[in-house]
Design a protein that fits this description.
This protein is of the alpha/beta class and about 350 residues long. The chain has 3 domains: about 200 residues, Rossmann fold; about 80 residues, 2-Layer Sandwich (Uridine Diphospho-n-acetylenolpyruvylglucosamine Reductase, domain 3); about 30 residues, no CATH class. Helix content is about 45%, strand content about 20%. A 6-stranded mixed sheet has the order 3-2-1-4-6-5, sandwiched between helices. A hairpin with a 2-residue loop joins β9 and β10. α4 packs across α7. The N and C termini lie far apart (about 45 Å).
């Protein structure tokens, strides 16, 4: 935990499903919190996707009570997804965590991803043709809005996790979804044992991911430097990029600059496809639409503006309260109404 350089008074949340990984992380964080005078808050998401989910969440609550860890159950009450269940369940989980933490002034949540998860992610993304960013796999720390997600077990082997729980005489819940071949992650998990027999090693995969992350950080450094000097975000919500400076960039940095601009202006909930962005750069037209944005080149400037149809319609703004509207945070001294366009 010392590698994350956290503020001294920060409350640390931890996601606990009841499985071995998250239960082990909760126990380790409890011990760390006691030694370092830190408050630990355990959070369990009940997706309501299985009949047993509510019962399992209550079981976790009882375990946390025995371990003297503050605990809260976050229950999803929306419609159940029928397709892309794994992906949508993950989105539900992060959304509920983010909402709870925002209301309770928690800015850091620890998750129990470990070295096996890192290997599975690496090979799954390699199979899909991911670029450098994708092959960095899971990062030890990442941001989701104002919430920072920490993964202190990322270099820890699953066998170590099980040994810790056994030494403390703790039991855990086995999620049947973790054995269902319908999910890509499960299929990769079962294939990894075969891959290790070929001479590949888990430590080698982790080292590659670490080195790729180092390269990614360097590329992002130069992307951010260009952004500060040659990209202007107008207060009215559109961006301006110097055309000459943009075309002087190496292709990879151009790709990153365009992607970053589209993310900021478009605010799409769906991640921008690298393939779509690559095609746009290969055939950079004077005017095109991508990532919920219009991209228009005129007189030495590339303009990026959000599509009118994608902008949030009018919204009532209460007085003296920060409100998010479209891609803006708005504060009004008196009640007001904002409109798209």
């Amino acid at each position: 935990m010392s590698t994350f350089d956290l503020p001294a008074n920060a409350v640390i949340g931890v996601g606990v499903s009841g499985g071995a990984d998250s239960l082990c992380l909760a126990v380790l964080l409890r011990d760390w919190g006691q030694k370092n005078d830190r408050k630990i808050v355990a959070l369990t998401v009940n997706h309501n996707l299985r009949p047993e989910a509510a019962k399992e969440a209550k079981w976790v609550a009882n375990q946390m009570k025995k371990l003297k860890i503050e605990h809260h159950i976050l229950t999803y009450t929306g419609p159940k997804p029928s397709t892309r269940i794994e992906e949508k369940a993950r989105e539900i989980r992060y959304t509920l965590l983010q909402e709870f933490c925002e209301k309770n002034n928690i800015h850091y949540v620890c998750l129990a991803h470990h070295s096996d998860d890192q290997s599975e992610t690496f090979f799954a993304r390699l199979a899909r043709g991911s670029g450098l960013d994708g092959l960095c796999a899971i990062h030890p720390a990442s941001n989701r809005g104002n919430l920072t997600l920490l993964r202190p077990l990322l270099n820890v082997d699953k066998t170590v996790i099980l040994d810790i729980l056994t030494s403390k005489n703790l039991t855990w819940v086995e999620d049947p979804m973790n054995q269902d071949d319908v999910f890509e992650r499960v299929r990769w998990r079962k294939q990894l044992n075969n891959l290790w027999q070929t001479g590949l090693t888990k430590s080698g995969v982790l080292l590659s991911a670490k080195r790729l992350q180092r390269a990614k950080d360097a590329l992002n450094f130069y992307t951010d430097s260009f952004f500060k000097e040659y990209v202007h975000i107008d207060e009215r919500g559109f961006a301006k990029i110097s055309k000459k400076a943009f075309y002087d960039l190496p292709l990879e940095i151009r790709l990153r600059v365009l992607t970053k601009t589209l993310d900021i202006i478009g605010q799409s909930e769906t991640p921008l496809s690298m393939e779509a962005t690559e095609k746009a750069l290969e055939n950079f037209k004077q005017r095109f639409t991508l990532g919920h944005c219009h991209v228009i080149t005129s007189r030495g400037t590339i303009f990026v503006a959000k599509e009118y149809a994608r902008q949030e319609p009018k919204k009532n703004i209460p007085a003296k309260k920060w409100i998010r509207w479209d891609r803006f945070r708005i504060w009004c001294e008196v009640p007001a109404v904002v409109y798209a366009g």
